[in-house]
Amino acid sequence: MAPRDCAPSPSPRTSTFQHDLPLHPTPRSLSVVESIYSQSQYSESSDSTAASSIDDARPVRSLRPGIYVPTVTFFAPDTEDLDLDTISKHAVRLAKAGVAGLTTQGSNGEAVHLTHQERKLVTKATRNALDSAGFHAMPIIVGCGSQSTRETIELCREAMTSGGDYALVLPPSYYKAMYKPECLIEFFEEIAEASPIPILIYNYPGAVAGIDMDSDVIIKLAKHPNIVGCKLTCGNTGKLGRIASSVDAATPSEDGSGFMCMGGSADFTLQTLVVGGSGIICGLGNIAPKACVKVIELYAAGKMDEAKKLQVVVAHGDWAAISGGIVGTKSALETYYGYGGFARKPLPRPSEQDAIRYASGFKELVELEKSLA
Question: pLDDT digit string (tens) for 250-273?
Fold first, then answer.
């Protein structure tokens, strides 16, 4: 047999978009998961033991349409060590605001600045904080993108043993010029085949050398039973609408197939919902989670005029988050909520003038946020 240009394809996929993930935990899966969360420390040996013990377990926390927040990772200002206490308190603050779930190890979480062990600690601290505050059913999506298939699978396994329920995976991009069209499809299929937790495809051209997966590719991949959603930070709502329609995506009013077709920025929340999307995974939720949730609630209640007015305020605030990046988001958290700190080097620390500018960009939205019950 002639050699393949890409890695071998996994076994044939099912052609249905129905995902048979249980809505409620079984006694066996719940007891196994609880035993993992009770571990006080993680080592390589405990990770491998936990992974082997629940390799065939399904997530016990369902994804539902709504707002998901890619959480900020906080560091001690002097040492840049993880500030697990602030990470935990922030997660609970977001949960109390009514978001549908959290995402760790995203762009806002500075995943590229973290070691594997730090990634595990952040997810574990987030899960423990949610459970301690009574949010046992809130799912955690974990960013697991890497440049190789092998490491991405490893990150998915580590996400599971740390308390993650789903994996969010970017396409690899370092060797972009050498990839053939089938390489990225096989990459996602092989991750889905090997990952112990379901995955969501993350389409974010700005983070992966301009790779922009089209709707045909994502619809094809959505047929795999362990691929349960996508996040489109490309901002292409036409693409989002085509995918949502083709896979019968879940919406705030209809369960559909259960596939989660998510926008990747709060500034097109309403647009995502109008074309049949499931919700948004948005960094702005770190600053104003209640306002982000309110847009969806108003839409679901049929209050379109109010939803449009709120969407405008959210869009202005989101531009501050987009233009300021994680540096501006952390600065605004510090200004308005008394915590935030700084990003890890080599990202810059904001000057006094920078902090004033960042705060100004979020001012209208934060005032609205604090007015919501």
Answer: 999 999 999 999 999 999 999 999
This prediction's pTM: 0.85
Q: Who has greater pLDDT, 54 or 164?
A: 164
Residue 305: count other Cβ atoms within 10 Å of its Cβ. Answer: 8
Q: Which amino acid is at 186?
A: E
Residue 339 is predicted with a pLDDT of 98
Contacts of residue 46, defined as CB under 8 A and 6 or more positions apart, other chains included, come to: 39, 161
Distances 223 to 6, 17, 76, 261, 332 between C-alpha atoms, Å? 21, 5, 43, 13, 41
Question: 226 in helix, strand or coil?
Answer: coil
Which secondary structure element, helix H or strand E, spans residue 338, and what is its range?
A: none
**Tokens read off for 270:** 């309403």
Note the pLDDT of residue 307.
Answer: 98
Neighbours of 357 (CB within 10 A): 16
Decide: residue 348, CB within 10 A, 0-12 exposed, 13-18 middle, 19+ buried. exposed
User: C-alpha angle 155/159/165, rounded to 5°?
Assistant: 135
CA–CA separation, 161 and 120 (whole Å): 8
Please, are residues 234 and 296 in contact by the beta-carbon 8 Å criterion?
Answer: no
Q: What is the pLDDT of residues 55-93, one digit of tens each?
A: 444 447 999 999 999 999 999 999 999 999 999 999 999
**Per-residue tokens: 373:** 């019950």
Residue 181 pLDDT class (50, 70, 90 cuts): confident
Concerning whether 96 is annotated as a catalytic residue, the answer is no
Are the CB atoms for 160 and 51 separated by under 8 Å?
yes
Q: Tokens for 214? A: 């089209």
H/E stretch holding 143 reads strand 140-143
- CA dihedral in degrees (44, 49, 52, 55; nearest 10)? -80
User: Contact, 30 vs 24, CB < 8 A?
Assistant: no
Q: Residue 158 gets which letter from DSSP?
A: H
Catalytic residue among 120, 180, 220, 231: 231
Q: DSSP per residue over 58-109, as a string? A: PPSS---SEEEEEPPPPB-TTT--B-HHHHHHHHHHHHHTT-SEEEESSTTT
Cα–Cα distance measured from residue 82 to residue 73, given in angstroms and rounded to the nearest whole number: 8
